[in-house]
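Operator note (shift B, R.M.): manual run for NADH-ubiquinone oxidoreductase chain 4L requested after the automated queue skipped it. Running by hand, logging everything below so the morning shift can see what happened. Input copied straight from the record, untouched. If output looks odd, do not overwrite the archive copy; leave it for review.
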Amino acid sequence: MLIYDIRFLFIYMFFVGNLIFVSKNKHLLVVLLSLEFIVLSIFFFFLVLLMFIDYDMYMLMVFLVFSVCEGSLGLSILVSMIRSHGNDYFQSFSML
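Run finished. Output pasted below as returned.
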């Protein structure tokens, strides 16, 4: 019964992260943090799932490598936007 409660906790974390991602945000940093929260919830779900079926944890390391690369890429884009525009507001730069 405990595994079902944990699974619903990760599904709840995933949907809260998606809700924050799709809501109207003024700052790019909030969007990047919500993406990292989604990745973290997926990582914890995979961790519990792989521990439940006694599978090798090698794929979790690959997933962590890609999520760290995604986070560093997002931070580098944030720094370049702050240097070029002076802030991280979505309204201050054009998406074209």
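Quick read of the result: Helices lie at 2-22, 28-52, 58-85. The chain has one domain: 1-93.
Leaving this for review. - R.M.
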